[in-house]
Amino acid sequence: MSGALLVAGTTSDAGKSVVTAGICRWLKRQGVKVAPFKAQNMSLNSFVTLDGAEIGRAQAMQAAAAGALPEAAMNPVLLKPGGDGRSQVVVLGKPVAEVGALDYRDRKPALLRIALDCLADLRSRHDVVICEGAGSPAEINLRDRDIANMGLAVAADLPVVVVGDIDRGGVFASMFGTLALLSAEDQAHIAGWLVNKFRGDARLLQPGLDMLLQVTHRPALGVLPMLSGLWLDAEDSLDLAGVMARGTSGPPAGSDVLRVSVVRVPRLSNFTDIDALAQEPGVLVRWATRPEELADADLVVLPGTRATVADLAWLRDQGLDRAVAEHAARGLPVLGVCGGYQMLARTIDDPVESKRGEVDGLGLLPVRIAFAQEKTLARPVGEGYGEVVHGYEIHHGVATVEGGEPWLDGCHAGSVWGTTWHGALENDGFRRAFLREVAAVTGRDFVPAPDTCFAAAREERLDRLGDLIAEHADTDALWRLIEGGAPQGLPFVPPGAPS
């Protein structure tokens, strides 16, 4: 068996990533050797594989759902938007260029060949590959150079299931409109619909589903209910409301709650670093874009960014630089991760991302940053607070530490900590030790829960996605598509057909 399926969506954030992960987990439970695939991903949330390749964080999450090791072939093309209308192009895990949108179009034919080779390679080594589209398959202005949606489906002869977000409203119109805008060749690959994020009694939808079948000749393959509290690896900033509107995951073990304010810089990247804090009982995590939103925080976090110097300028424009400095001056904890760590330095010399040369940092850590042309991609292992710590690095900035105390690969001075390591807080023992130190510095009666396991919590969320597919999708129909491809002879639906 060497089956495959493409999960597309009527819009960005329709639920393609979680549906792909759910199908992967459902198949894994059936004893199927399955892998995820996304030909082209635009995301600032990325991950480093064991062999040092950078891929989208969502594909790493989907690989975990599939029980497979993440690899570059699962996301052969990754676009990382910068601060000047340009994006870094990462191909097979390594950065190859900085391009604008029009420049990138010229590269697409060659990138499609690379994507098809990677998909063929994955199919040769797995029973099934579940592919995820990007944006919408009906972006007709981009169709002639598409490599992630119908361009991939036609070239690789894939059946396509389209996911629509009913919580936004207009799901039936968006499904019909998606199909009607496609060419006859593309429509032949559209096999059915998945209604996602439904609240209420699914029987109320039946008249709409019946009419959808009548006008598109494609059936609904399931109505998936809204799931809350998943906290899965978000792909882009559209997901931030769900990522951070969490409150705490349970009551504190002590009498106090720890309040964490995360500065939401414009080009935020790898905000998955905050997940481990947000799932800790008694820790309240919030976004902050104004100085007053740091006022009652016990811990301020400066997260990663794709554009350190540009986002540091934004920080100063908002007055957040002074608020962070005042927080530290009061002896209250500040944590910088990757780009946030670079912002805390004395100086930043950047001839690479911003090409601004040397600029002043916030000066809260005895560190100087110099940007290298070569990106660091690594999976370091170290020790902190007597605990083993695994992390991953994705950065151009190289830090020279001139004082303070060592802290992972970075430093700790006063109440300020910094590191280039993403994922460090996912290590349970290290996270608990750090939170105990934050509580001691702030005088809070906060005690980390002794049995919180971030890896187990993530597995439980992936299992919920597997349950979502098993219980609410037409799995027999999915099997038929995976094994047999798109149904033959489906009618072409011209625009305006319902009238």
From TrEMBL:
CDD domains: CobQ_N, GATase1_CobQ. GO terms for biological process: cobalamin biosynthetic process. Residues 6-230 form the CobQ/CobB/MinD/ParA nucleotide binding domain. Residues 259-429 form the CobB/CobQ-like glutamine amidotransferase domain. It comes from the Bacteria. One of its GO terms (molecular function) is catalytic activity. SUPFAM superfamilies: Class I glutamine amidotransferase-like (SSF52317), P-loop containing nucleoside triphosphate hydrolases (SSF52540). InterPro entries: Class_I_gatase-like, CobQ/CobB/MinD/ParA_Nub-bd_dom, CobQ_GATase1, CobQ_N, CobQ_synth, GATase_3, P-loop_NTPase. Pathway: Cofactor biosynthesis; adenosylcobalamin biosynthesis. It holds the Pfam family CbiA. Keywords: Cobalamin biosynthesis, Glutamine amidotransferase. The active site is at C338, H422. The keyword NAD does not apply. HAMAP family: CobQ. Catalyzes amidations at positions B, D, E, and G on adenosylcobyrinic A,C-diamide. NH(2) groups are provided by glutamine, and one molecule of ATP is hydrogenolyzed for each amidation. Belongs to the CobB/CobQ family. CobQ subfamily. This is Cobyric acid synthase.
